[in-house]
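Figure S7 source data.
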Amino acid sequence: MRSVRSAKNGATRSVLVAGGAGFLGSNLCERLVAEGMHVYCMDNMLTGRPSNLSGLSREPRFTLIEQDVCDPVPARLAVDRVMNLACAASPPRYQADPVHTMMTSVLGTRNLLDHAKRHGARFLQASTSEIYGDPEEHPQREDYWGNVNPIGPRACYDEGKRAAETLCYDYRRTEGTDVRVARIFNTYGPRMRADDGRIVSNLICQALAGEPLTIYGDGEQTRSFCYVDDMIAGFLALMEAPQAPDGPVNLGNPHEFSILQLAEQVLDLVPTRSRLVFEPLPQDDPKRRRPDISRAERLIGWRPRVPLAEGLPPTIRWFASAEGRAGDVATPETTQRTRAAAGVSPTL
Ligand code: NAD
Ligand code: UDP
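Tokens for the predicted uridine-5'-diphosphate complex:
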């Protein structure tokens, strides 16, 4: 991979990772620090966890800024890269406060784009396969405009992310901002929350607890699951490509599984007495999802390497560990401890 470490003048690169305390964000922060970058992580701890960042707490090149991206970014925070991962990604989580979800994607992305413009920084947006809604084309290519219900319960997320993409390309056209948009397909792995509500975490945690595995609908709906390490490699490949692609790039694993097939794989790997239980399908639940990744292969030289059968065991080990089981919702005390340990600057 190209070096991400040095700016043109040989100085250490600085990157602002919004949403850096979450599942993908914390894995990304660790990788960026390991690559030699100075990382500023901005997070309001809505679904992120201080404990996700504990491995970075003594790292001098890591700073946690506890802030909502809906508030303006401190202007003097000089960075060469902005990576916007801020937004709850689990349907029950993003639907719990839909107006805030929408504002996170719209106002938050605008604040972060303004910051990238101010510092001449590259900008990467964590967009989503939800852009395609319940797709009428399969697999999904980036030139498909999607089939989204604009007023349904998923709209706060889907339409918020669509508006964020619009903002990115408006900044590119009007301000010349270097924007890169990753359309992420379902990604799983260590640091997902046990109480997250998404399919991989639910099935594994239910199997480990010997509880029924909840299948919504008939379980014939499909998703394509990408392992976290592959996704982080995709973010870096997209961010560091010398030329910004002229539009969004799908990042995901093109191997498609029905939810029933996923449940079978989990049952094969976890010794359990759990059985399947069928529950109603949520409104607007997409029936099929598989990325066409030919643009990613051609433009940034990326393709995923970890098949589901290899990614599930470390994910199961994570949920079986004390850390993975903990539903440690941020409290004022844990937050205070993490702020101190991570050296949150009171001047930022
Ligand atoms: P996550 O919920 O674990 O992480 C989101 C992070 O953003 C959390 O740390 C949360 O506290 C923070 N956050 C939320 N709203 C914020 C706000 N207003 N201000 C500051 N911080 C805020 O989810 P994830 O799976 O790590 O997803 C990361 C990003 O990738 C999200 O933008 C999501 O939409 C996108 N994405 C993820 C997937 C996936 O399968 N994991 C798929 C498509 C897109
Ligand atoms: N799902 C399920 N049981 C669960 C959680 C989810 O059958 O306990 C289904 C859900 O209805 C959807 C698929 O699994 O069809 C993926 O759901 P998830 O929330 O992980 O992601 P998204 O729908 O956003 O792709």
